[in-house]
Design a protein that fits this description.
Radius of gyration: 47 Å
CATH topology of one domain: Heat Shock Protein 90
Helix content: 40-55%
Strand order of the largest sheet: 6-8-9-11-10
Bound molecules: adenosine-5'-triphosphate, magnesium ion
CATH superfamily of one domain: Histidine kinase-like ATPase, C-terminal domain
Order of helices and strands: HHEHEEEHHHEHEEHEEHEE
CATH architecture of one domain: 2-Layer Sandwich
Largest sheet: 5 strands, mixed
CATH class of one domain: Alpha Beta
Shape: rod-shaped
Number of strands: 11
């Protein structure tokens, strides 16, 4: 639009100026010249009567003025005015009225290359045939063709340039989107116009800052968890020896719980980021997860409609599924897992019959350490990292995760993975 609108405007303005002034003027001048020649012939034959001289004047007109003239004595011009005149006929009429001043008739249509002009003289009709070229400037069309042609070329060149300018912007948008989805954007390079490069550099600086901040936080979490593990192990060993002391079992349970928590923190901090992507059968992964869930005492129905092999970080993805199934077992009694291909994606749904998650909390439960029931009591929930890890894993595979109401009464978690 930026290019086409001014271009068309320019074309219209220049065309109007051209037609209004240049074409009108040129046509009028050409018409005047023809009318002047005719006036000269008329005045010559009036001054020099006699057939012989008249013939010589006509010959002269044919040779030097490109006018083939004949005189029809006693003829009378029919009074038929010219209607629907084009510009040339109009200008010629005007010129003839000005310079000849006698009744006339112009026939511009009956012959394609000639124009016939009849003029009423006192005793007859002067019949003049002249070439259309004498009245018509053909260069005008050349002008219009040039105008349209050059603007088409301009438009094509401008389109190519604009495309090249838009490409780096699109690349920047893609990089930002990929970064948002947690994908690798290390191959992105700033290019294009200065402003676009500036935006790209700003984006890269921002990405650096975000990555650094996340790394600092996860490093800290990993460090704390790791450091706490050693004294905890020591404590466990000491408690093992306190076999007969009352309350030792409770203490053991608490220590196991803490170890489990630290394991969760560490898994989150590590993000299983170093694992390689390998083609993996989702059905066998789901079988294992369901089996493990049953061993933990869950009632699990597994329906695999179609299996699918896709590139996955298997350990990370298994952890994701385990976290989801663990939640379903913890908060519900019956768990139903369905998996199959829907359109161009592989979908896994995990339904339970627990209390579900209120709609306004469904975004929050993906945040680290968030629990709907926020007492931190280990009986009513866990650390609050399970869904965070699951969401990260799914998104890092280019998939989507969402929560909804299950027809079984509890929560439905739906994973949708691109095939
Ligand atoms: N299937 C579910 N039914 C009801 N509420 C759920 C379900 N899954 C998750 N929630 C809610 O979302 C919260 C966050 O879940 P998340 O798995 O992240 O943490 P968690 O299960 O409490 O701890 P853990 O880190 O041990 O998994 C839970 O505390 C719970 O309130
Ligand atoms: Mg959980």
């Amino acid at each position: 639009m930026i290019i086409v609108t001014p271009l068309i405007l320019l074309q219209i303005v220049s065309a109007i100026i051209f037609y209004e002034t240049h074409w009108d003027k040129v046509t009028l001048r050409l018409a005047r010249s023809v009318a002047g020649d005719i006036a000269a012939v008329i005045s010559l034959i009036r001054d020099e009567p006699g057939n012989q001289i008249q013939q010589r004047i006509f010959d002269l007109a044919a040779e030097t003025m490109q006018l083939s003239v004949s005189y029809h004595e006693k003829d009378v011009l029919e009074n038929s005015p010219n209607i629907d005149d084009d510009l040339m006929t109009r200008m010629l009429s005007r010129a003839l009225m000005d310079t000849v001043g006698k009744p006339f008739h112009i026939d511009a249509d009956s012959r394609s290359r000639h124009v016939i002009i009849d003029i009423q003289l006192p005793k007859g009709v002067l019949h003049v045939v002249t070439s259309r070229k004498r009245l018509f400037s053909s260069t005008t069309y050349v002008f219009v063709i040039w105008m349209v042609g050059t603007s088409l070329i301009l438009f094509a060149v401008a389109t190519i340039f604009m495309r090249n300018q838009v490409k780096p912007i699109r690349r920047l948008a893609d990089a930002a989107e990929n970064f948002g989805k947690g994908r690798d954007v290390s191959t992105f390079k700033p290019e294009g116009a200065a402003e676009v490069r500036q935006a790209a550099l700003a984006f890269m600086a921002m990405r650096e800052r975000i990555v650094r901040q996340i790394r600092q936080r996860t490093d800290m979490l990993a460090g704390v968890s790791h450091d706490l593990r050693t004294p905890l192990t020591r404590m466990r060993l000491q408690v093992e020896m306190l076999e007969k002391v009352s309350g030792a079992d409770d203490l053991k349970g608490d220590i196991a719980e803490m170890e489990h928590m630290l394991e969760g923190y560490l898994a989150f901090a590590r993000g299983e980021g170093t694992e390689q992507v390998r083609p993996t059968h989702l059905s066998s992964l789901l079988d294992t997860v369901a089996e493990q869930g049953r061993r933990k005492g869950g009632l699990i129905d597994l329906h695999i409609e179609n299996s699918c092999e896709m590139p996955l970080r298997a350990t990370a993805f298994k952890r994701c599924l385990t976290n989801l199934v663990d939640n379903a077992i913890r908060f519900g009694d019956h768990v139903t897992i369905r998996a199959g291909i829907r359109a161009d994606r592989y979908e896994i749904t995990i339904d339970d019959d627990g209390p579900g998650v209120p709609e306004d909390q469904r975004q929050n439960v993906f945040r680290p350490f968030f629990r709907v029931e926020d007492s931190r009591n280990p009986i009513t929930g866990g650390i609050g990292l399970g869904l965070t890890i699951a969401g990260d894993v799914v998104r890092s595979h280019g998939g989507e995760i969402d929560l909804s109401d299950s027809p079984n009464g509890g929560l439905r978690v739906r994973l949708s993975m691109p095939i």
